[in-house]
Amino acid sequence: MTTGELILAAKQAADAVRTAGTGLKNAALYAMADEIIGSTDAILDANAEDVCRASGHLSPAMIDRLMLNEKRVKDMADGIRAVAALPDPVGRILEKRTLYNGLLLEKRSVPIGLIAIIYESRPNVTSDAAALCIKSGNSCLLRTGRDAIFSSTAIVSAMRRGLAACSLPTDCICLVSDTDHRSANEIMEAVGLVDLLIPRGGAGLISSCVRNAKVPVLRTGTGICHIYVDRAADTAKALDIIENAKAQRPSVCNAAEVCLVHSDIAGDFLPALKKRLTDDRIAASLPPVELRLDRTAAGIIDGVPAGDNDFDTEFLDYILAVGVVGSVEEATKHIAKHSTGHSEAIITEDPVAAGIFTDSVDSAAVYVNASTRFTDGGQFGLGCEMGISTQKLHARGPVGLCELTSYKYVIRGDGQIRR
């Protein structure tokens, strides 16, 4: 089917899932999860083809993001089941009151309709997005990057079998097989068909959708995430948090990209940071983190001098920009200038400094003494997520089930007329 035909098919299927009850939606989700587990070998074979084709032009961190194994396939199925176990976001009474004229007003949550997701080469997004759409009563149109097209096709085929087993239209989940830019543009211009477009990926993809789309866009953000090490920080705690935030999985949007260190402790802390992220990781045969240093930090430890854009870059790799600041206030001003509004953390044992940081930093998630890697729908108890929204209207932070609903007013009267 052409992209236009797929858009129309998914739109037509939206009515069926919109009116489906909680039991039917949950049954479909469990069936989708079972089909994914039953298709593990086929999914892994398809993924191996994607990885083979991507090798040579994707970084090791991006290859890791693309690669599936049995555990990651199981995690996809478990994510779908976790969504099924959550309360149904549709039909909630958000407000109910009687007006002065006796009219009974009800504000009720409803599905959005057809949600299109344009995303880069992360196969797990395929299952996460589909599960969230089905549970929230929406149909979905998936358009992945060319590097994950075989994996996504196998995953969608399994999920559509789950839908069919529960007598829901398989077109509630549609995958665009054309990965040319023209298909993305067609989705962006599908006014009256696509009710919401969610781009999930790097800065280029997101800015392109925001700039060019004629349909409503929910902006999920790039993550220039900061960790500020205060002068009252516990050093051991800080090193553990920074290594986790930067190196556990550097290719994801909640990985730390910038570390700011208070000048009072920089002389002791930065050598310990270099040892932990570079020397110790080399000794352990782990990828070392390249430190991009501002002028003050470069006077304390060896590293790569920071370039003009290094504090404004989402590296998605084993690279960390490091700067020295004179106070928590200076740190928050730096974050306000360079952050994308995703996730920031302060490491401190001083509650006053923590309060200044949490009050001043205007990002979707603000942490005290914890890794930014927790900004995730699953970690927040949302089952999984559609992405991390860095905008402030409609949704902010992990986009889960409730964020995929809108609302309508239902008004009941007894013959009232307006005079």
- Report the principal-axis shape: globular
Fraction in helix: 40-55%
Mean pLDDT: 95
Which structural class is indicated by helix and strand composition?
alpha/beta
Extended strand count:
16
Please give the order of strands in the largest beta sheet: 10-9-11-8-7-12-13
Beta strand %:
15-25%
What does this structure look like?
This protein has 419 residues and is an alpha/beta fold. The radius of gyration is 23 Å and the shape is globular. The protein has a 7-stranded parallel beta sheet with strand order 10-9-11-8-7-12-13, with helices on both faces. Helix 2 (22-38) packs across helix 7 and helix 3 packs antiparallel against helix 7. Helices cover 42% and strands 19% of the residues. It has 14 helices and 16 strands. Helix 14 (351-360) links the parallel strand 12 (343-347) and strand 13.
Question: Quick gist of this model?
Answer:
The protein has 419 residues and is an alpha/beta fold.
How are the elements arranged and paired?
Elements: H1 3-18, H2 22-38, H3 40-54, H4 60-66, H5 70-84, E1 93-98, E2 104-111, E3 114-119, H6 123-135, E4 139-143, H7 149-165, E5 173-175, H8 181-188, E6 196-200, H9 203-212, E7 225-229, H10 235-247, E8 256-262, H11 263-283, E9 290-293, H12 295-298, E10 304-305, E11 319-325, H13 328-338, E12 343-347, H14 351-360, E13 365-368, E14 388-389, E15 397-398, E16 405-412
Parallel strand pairs: 3-4, 3-6, 4-5, 7-8, 7-12, 8-11, 9-10, 9-11, 12-13
Antiparallel strand pairs: 1-2, 2-16, 14-15
